[in-house]
């Protein structure tokens, strides 16, 4: 488990270099279980390869992963990952998207891109999304390990789509997680090996932002009700700073049967005022 100093040092690296690697963050048992679940779902749901050059014609992606297997719930909540994200964003951050990224042999390198380039904010900007790439197999030069340009989150522009850049390969053993500021220039590598590269992308954003996947509609209510409370909050059943996301002045977590939702900021202000007046 990460110490407070570890958490801070990973958060500092994300701020300074744009990325950090948490080596062997997940246990081998969890990694094997996750991989087996991905294989089972691919089989049972007869899922096909992606259909765009960006997503990869030899890549199999499963979106909305939390709906498929309860074991996946452990990923966004992982104790060696989430505290680092919370240190860079805050504790009211959200899960933005969560998908599998399985690159088959022959998959070409993905164009270098960054994940915030459609958001009309001048670069460089504060980290607004943090992506966690989970390596479920060893990430090697020859099997499609993610390529990154360290420090590029501070560049004043986004990369030119389709242009070749001098990137480094984020090689890491299975079970490791690379966390990066999504403004970092990056892309999946080419898989020239004869085996599949298994990975997850689990991205988090601020609580005041729109999530990339619509998790409140995409995850059936009967599934969300069974989530641990923290996962419900991460999926958007919460109110950022007691202001953004309420339903008729109520915290949406109460829709899932939870008690003691957050008070709205305007109510909380009156309660505070009354308390001070009574002192
Ligand atoms: O597959 C990878 O290593 C990275 C994928 C990625 O960056 C993306 O699809 O946006």
TrEMBL record:
GO molecular function: 2-oxoglutarate-dependent dioxygenase activity; iron ion binding
Pfam families referenced in this protein's UniProt entry, alphabetically: PhyH
Ranges in coiled-coil conformation: none
InterPro entries referenced in this protein's UniProt entry, alphabetically: Phytyl_CoA_dOase-like
Keywords: Dioxygenase, Oxidoreductase
Keyword Kinase: no
Cofactor(s) the protein requires to work: Fe(2+)
Protein name (record): Phytanoyl-CoA dioxygenase
Native species: Bradyrhizobium macuxiense
